[in-house]
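Entry 0007
Protein: MTHFR SAM-binding regulatory domain-containing protein
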Amino acid sequence: IDSQNSTPKEELLSMWGERLTCEKDVWGVFERFISGEINEHGVKVTTMPWSDAELEPETFLLKDKLAELNRKGILTINSQ
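Output (C-alpha cells):
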C-alpha cells in the first residue's frame, strides 16, 4: 500500500482488504466508509487512501444516498 495515510499498513489492510478481486470489492470499501458499517473482518473503515480524515458532519445528512451510489459503483470521492 502506497498511501498518503499515516495509519499503519496492517490496520489499512484490515479496513480495505488484503485482496481486492473485483470492482465490487472496491465499491464495498467506499460504501462502508460512508455508511460506517463494519467490514467482513469486523473492522470499521475510518480512512481512505487520500485522507486520514473521517467523514465531515455535513456528509452524514446524505450518507444513506451516498452509500447507495457507492454500492452501485458510483464512487463518491468528492463527498468526503
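Curator remark: The chain has a mean pLDDT of 87. Residues 20-72 form one domain.
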